[in-house]
Batch of 4 targets.
Target 1
Amino acid sequence: MGSTPVGTEFTFRYVGGAPRKYISTYQEDECHDKILLKLAKLHFNALQKQHKQELSHLSKWWKDVDIVSKCPYARDRLVEGYFWALALYYEPYYSRGRKFFTMGVVYISVLDDTYDAYGTADELELITESINRFDTSLFEQMPPYAREICQMVFGVYSVMEEDLLKDGNGAHLPCVKEAMKLIVRSYHNEYLWLKKNLIPTMDEYTQQSFSSSAITTLLIFSLAAMGDIVTKAALDWILSAPKFVIAAQGIGRFLDDIVSHEFEQQRQHIPSAVPPP
């Protein structure tokens, strides 16, 4: 935390952009090392170019998926998701981690909007069952939008599968798949609360809503993409919800409740940790 001002501890910062300020300051110093300054500029420009290329490739993938036109109720959060990934790790060798994380953010956001405000009980049951079983046989029973959502999820998994197998990290795939199942089960359980008009206790709410914060799913995606330094045992441990994961889930959930509670009061929604005015 150090000298971080109170009230800004949870602000996402793009740490990779900080050298730009330091380069300008160092350049004005009469005693600066010209070679060091030149290397710093080259490194910053190369890193910025890589980030632009990554976002360009992700944008092309997202445009090809075209889920925004097929599900117009859903938020388009690609750039937001990539910026979030940069806040986690900007270094060039974590390119795949940023790719997996951003893909996770955009597809989870579509699922969240679908379960929160669009799908019917029968449709959500089919989506949940299809993803939970990783089974396309239910597609014939789905309306077009639900089928597109499941195809999007399976498509994201296929991209991750191809990348991980290419690097010899196929052992991570069961954990990636389980993380995908975890988030849809959580969203569906919350929908059932709403449908049955249940008001959970705070303990019940935290137990359920922490898992729907998507922290675990995104954490698995990020770590699985980091290569040999992360083992399957480590991913299994994350899925077992150790204390630090529960703490991260809680931070994510309560921050989300604080930010979104006014909007969510305008439509049917499960109770949140923030009481209505």
Target 2
Amino acid sequence: MMSETNHRRFLKSQPVPIYQIGNYLPSELVLNKQGETLQLDWIRNAPYSTIIFVMSKRCAACNYDAVEAFINKYPKFTYHMLIEGDEEYLNTIRNRFPEVPIAPCESILVQKELDFYGIPWMFGVNKVGQIVAGGLCSEFESMERQARPFINVFYQRAKSV
């Protein structure tokens, strides 16, 4: 006979990362199993806030048209992309976004290191490296929703002054 709580056993097998707004980015992010890293100290020198997209070639929901529209509408932000894919794919994305630094990564390692789950993902990071916003971002509207704290500060306030 099965107990009434027996169905819950599978829920305990895999801990799900808990993403927290307010966490700080590390000064160095491990990008792959070979130990290649990305220095993140440059965030402190960005004139405004920084938006970091995490995407993958294998991701059907990764919408580069929406990313392009977002970047064009909000050019004050500093942008960076962490993308999983082969060199040909990365070069295609680099050609599409020549002004955005793009680092190749293994998305599962980045997800574990930064405690988030799923892609496409975006982080909004302030000048001290604190994550102020973040979440899944497959459409332009979801990108605006995730970046709303920065949009309110750098764009809405400018309109009302």
Target 3
Amino acid sequence: MSICIIGSGIIGLSTALAIQEKEPRAKVTLVAESFSPDVTSDVAAGYWRPSLLVDPRTDVLWRWGELTFQHIERLAYREPDTGALWQSGYEMRQDSVKEDFFWKDTVRNYRNISERELQNMGFSQFKSAIFYTTLALEGSIYLPRMLDQFKRNSGTLQQKRLENLDDIGGSYNAIGNCSGLGAHHLITDTSVYPIRGQTIRVQAPHIKHFYVFDDDYYVLQNGTSIVLGGTHQEHDWDTSVRPADFDHIWNGNTNFLPALKTAKIIKQATGLRPGRPTVRLEAERRAVCGKTKTVVHNYGHSGSGLTLFYGCALDAADLLQQAVHRPNAKL
């Protein structure tokens, strides 16, 4: 059997590895215009926390996120060189709104911070906050490892830009569409839109916690560096680094956390997150190269690709497995 996976970000790679595990004899081809280190997942800090999702299906998001959290936890304990690590920190707000996050039982040590405690910490401008321990998975470290594993599993890489599904050819039994933002043009899904993110990566070993300020600014730990953000500019396709956004990120974070002012700037980066009203994970029968094929869609994760990837990959692989063994089954 032959399966094509479109997309080489965290969603595409995890789906490809999941179907290889389920069907070790399958010939799996990964098709993408770019591979790591030139994909959006390489830019992400990989902080486990549902972000920029407007999908109302919190039960489904929770399950995907929980499975992914457990996967990263295993990596952190067994394979720390994958870029997986624990981190603790604070989310702070300048209003007194306390949200009941659907993911609060997944993370560790979740608790509300009192206003008095914030004042004692030197954050008197904030009225409410939470503390918790979560995981991070640095994409720029983990993606190359995934790619190596895919090739060791006899997977094939094909680098090219697809204008439509017919461009992949007609020899595959099933197709996994993990094209992310590319679904906008690949299958003309106009509900997919870019959420532009710009970040600054710095060295600041004296910063021991992560911080999120009003959902506008963040300080997130990776193994040897810290990622400062951020922007979430919807419908903005610009991938260039903007000086105005640098000023916004730097000034905002150093205003709230002055200890960052001595940080050494390493680099700046941008990425376009694949926004969508809901994550699309489903099988569809459609014409590809004149033949009816099963296409399993797995895209539209907004800013939560590294939070949901593993759970989504397992579900997508189940659908692909059904497609190759029961191609005429009702979806």
Target 4
Amino acid sequence: ASDGAAVYPGTCRKGLAPGRTARAWRLRVPDVPADVFSFNDAWCGNRTQHLAAEVGDFVLKRADGFWAYQLAVVVDDAEQGVTDVVRGCDLIDSTARQIYLQGLLGLPTPNYLHVPVVTNELGEKLSKQTGAREIDSTDPLAALKQAAVFLGLNLAPAQDLAGFWSQAIAAWAKRRATSIP
């Protein structure tokens, strides 16, 4: 898979061996040209993914009994009337699966925008999930200034949050306009 995960080889596609219990529920992805999904991401441009070749059958219900992210996010977004999804680019490879599910379930497909994520020197996403340190929230202006420097935004010194946000929004919009393909 383009996100680094292995393509599911269809191990249980034809059923389980006698005595084996199902662990996860997977959605069978047909290997047909119609299952090449293209979508326009507002940041990353046009994207294409062939589900069978790049992902394979994917999990809808996990072995622990919980519904998988792909199905949960599709149903939640539709239930809440979400029209625009903005999330980290680390999730862009999930989008074709979600569009496929939306089509199967007769649900609307929102617009997508996947923004770059902050990474460490090894290219790992900085988040709670990866054990990144918490941001010091006792001085929000200092934390925001540090984030702006990290993101490469060249801002004049701001004395308050309103001044910071005014500059940061303008700088980000300018940067985004020059980085969209």
